[in-house]
Amino acid sequence: MSAPVEARSLVGGAWLDGQLAPDINPAHPDEVVAHVHLADAATARQAADAAREAAPAWRATPAPARGDILRKAADLLEQRSQSIGVELTREEGKTIAEAVGETRRAAAIFRYYAGQTVEPDGETYPSVSASLLYARREPLGVVLAITPWNFPIAIPAWKIAPALAYGNTVIFKPAELAPLTAVRLVEALLDAGLPKGVLNLVLGKGSVVGDPLVEHSEVDAITFTGSNVVGKAIQLKATERGKKVQLELGGKNPAVVLADADLALAAEHVARGAFLSAGQKCTATSRVIVERSVLQDFTEQLVGLAGKWKLGDPLLADTRIGPLVSEAALKSVMGYVDEGKAGGRVLAGGSAAREIGGGYFVRPTVLTDIDPKGRLAQEEIFGPVAVLLPANTYADAVALANDTPFGLTASVFTQDLGKALRFVEETQAGVIKVNQETAGLEFQVPFGGMKESSSGSREQGKVAREFFTQWKTVYIDTGRR
Ligand code: NAP
Ligand code: MG
Questions:
Q1: Residue 273 φ/ψ region, left for φ over 0, alpha for ψ in the -120 to 50 degree band, beta for the rest
Q2: Distance of CA 416 to the CA centre of its chain
Q3: For 183-238, how does the pLDDT look when each residue is reduced to its tens digit (9 = 90+)?
Q4: 282 flagged as catalytic
Q5: According to the model, what pLDDT value does residue 2 have?
Q6: Can you give the pTM of this predicted structure?
Q7: Which of 95, 109, 128, 163 is the least crowded, having the fewest Cβ atoms under 10 Å away?
Q8: Bridge-based pairing state of the strands 28-38 and 5-7
Q9: Beta carbon of 251 within 6 Å of any ligand 1 atom
Q10: Contacting residues for 343 by C-beta, under 8 A, at least 6 apart
Q11: Does pLDDT of 351 surpass 70?
């Protein structure tokens, strides 16, 4: 067990003390990973002011020079991926392979947006009135990035990297449950030469620092990933103040297993989507919709995997599933599981496993005989829980897949290309996968959801530019045409 370290907010280049709170290890809740100096409302406001002060010089820095700093930060994250990964696992609970992989993903995202700084930043148009007519993308100014704990380095990376690449300054408000990873990300950028005030870090509770940041007059835009309740409230406050807002929210992602599917492949991918990271992904597989003729065969294979995958200390190399992030998460997930036991049938798991180091573990769980209109089939559970829903036909399966307020990701397992393409056409989700799990994204393509899963333009890839910049249209008349 390593000794706790300290985590502080960064405002205008200064690391600030605050009231102390422990950041604990969800696999061993008696272990303190970091002492966190919590920011208050005044610190939050100072962070916004610091970001405003740094904005003109950063905006005036040539984009390729901004890219050089991001590329250096990517190299540092890559070099530090093992140590950052260990700390990420200790504060958040995902397995070490997932944590190191996520840190390397963050490095790749910084490298990608470094590359975007030499891409075209506008378009020229034929004109009837001007010698030169062009439109160019300009920075918004000050961007507030509010992020969840479940991907504590990749999600901040896919917000902060494009924000900085396109010339904005940033206030980063990470989740209270993963502050140390946020500090490590910010350190890599500082060590890469990012000027003071360009990136500011506010470690504080959302309930304390949220409103002062969201309502601050110097904040031009807010990119948020997290729960629907918090996201919608932020959107209301921000839009009435004229700020640009982007929300990435929850999911209740379906995996549809059709009768002609390769059932072993489907079971493996459904188990991965439902159980890895203990099901704590917005893209996790939460509903498994199976054509009745293969229900028994598929279920046996899925239940077999649920019983086999090792639950345990996430720092051990052979662990596949770590703990939930907190005691509150454990309580919430077990509330759903207990409801499933009472109203349906448990085919695998169905219990907590506190005996593993006293941590917040839940056994991979498969539930069936669940009301498709009830809470278990409609709400995001955010734990290693798969709800099995039988379908009589392909059409029933698609109707079930679309029957929630969410629309983030969806999978279909089939060997029939025609059915696969129909599913792509008929399913309301921002990301659709054929013969792959619902989770797992590549960073060069747009990411986001339909219906209540997202609002505003998409994240990642080149399309991120839509959110982090605004057009300026320029007519130049030299009198010579
Ligand atoms: P959350 O509770 O909504 O928190 C998200 C962030 O908002 C945290 O930094 C939180 O700070 C902050 N916050 C809380 N109250 C606030 C307020 N009044 N004003 C401003 N900020 C406030 O979500 P979470 O539990 O961290 O993450 C899990 C959720 O994120 C799930 O619903 C999941 O589906 C969603 N998610 C979505 C995506 C996607 O891309 N669609 C990706 C990952 C996760 P504190 O931690 O300090 O409270
Ligand atoms: Mg923690």
A1: alpha
A2: 32
A3: 999 999 999 999 999 999 999 999 999 999 999 999 999 999 999 999 999 999 99
A4: yes
A5: 86
A6: 0.98
A7: 128
A8: parallel
A9: yes
A10: 369, 370, 371, 374, 376
A11: yes
